[in-house]
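Inputs:
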Amino acid sequence: MISTRLILREVLKHDSKKILLRGLATVQRQRRTGLSAAQEKEIVRENWELRCQLATAYRAFEKFGMSEGICNHLTAKAPSLFKEEGVALLVPYGMYWSQVTPECFVGIDLKTAEVIEGLGREPETTAYSIHLGVYDARPDVQCVMHTHPQYSTTLSVLKDPTIQMISQNAARFRTNVAYDIGGYDGIANQGENTEGKRLGQALGDKDVLVMGNHGLLTVGETIPMAYDRHYYFERAAETQVLAYQTGKPLSYLPDDVAKRTEEGIYAYVTKEVVAKHLNALRNVFMKEDPTFIDPKNSEYMEYVG
Ligand SMILES: [Zn+2]
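Outputs:
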């Protein structure tokens, strides 16, 4: 594989508009013009770093049992050498999350879902309708994560799926959760993008959406923030579902304590803190699998995306 990439690099150095992929097809694609060498380098650097973060999140959800088969999807907006508006990075269809690597991602057009980076790979199709609709509704977020984790999904099938103020983790989400109750209408339709629009509206200005009869969706201004919210909401839901199962009366936090806890966590959980969280996991995965992130592949991205 590496040797193929080396050959590709050499070929493409001579004609950057001509992309040869897998030796099977020749695709014409226009790189953005007018960028300085320094700007191109920065785009490649940032695109690669975002891929590393997103790959870490995929592996982490698999590690914690929050993935489901080869379904569900996490996406992040990233700058691209091929599209001024950037792309949404997304796992190719059919890849198990424990094997996701930074270079595997497909980069799709944020409006049309056309594959811009990773030509020839097939993205997970229901992601079009869910994620692009949410990005449309929330231009302030960089990352959207959607999974069917066991406990959040259990909450989502209850008549009252609301998170109860019974734990510290729950208090974090006291005023930052939206609920899409009774709106589930079958598998997301990729053609019309209606499900994404609907979910974007249901999310509103919150960062967590409990998707009725379906699962969980979080957004973040960064990838680590969306990940942190997703992980901790599932932990809060786990405590709540297990507490329900005991059948014993619940001990609710007084309103003022829940409010103070939410405010305290909000002040503590900064972009830097959540970045440390995801970075710690990245180190774990690098130790488990030193091939997980190969910096050499960041050069490869410059040519084939
Ligand atoms: Zn789903």
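Remarks. Strands lie at 18-21, 25-28, 73-78, 87-90, 106-108, 115-117, 143-147, 177-180, 208-211, 215-220. Confidence is low (pLDDT under 50) at residues 1-27.
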